[in-house]
Amino acid sequence: GGEALASALGVNVSLTKLDLSWNALRDESARALGRAFADNASLFDVNLEYNGFGDAGCEAVAMALEQNSGMRIL
Prior knowledge:
This protein is mainly α. Helices cover 49% and strands 8% of the residues.
């Protein structure tokens, strides 16, 4: 799930808001999404509430945000 979504985010330049809450995403998905977030300059608002990210997943997303200055709401 997370890998396919991350792949789609890599080519989508018009999406600005994404709600991924309550999707039971885990660390592996968070790492894939983190890579996509780092490369996607159009995303402004992403909701990741109520997923199953552990420390590694949270760290992957946080590192991606360091590279994406356009994201304002997480």
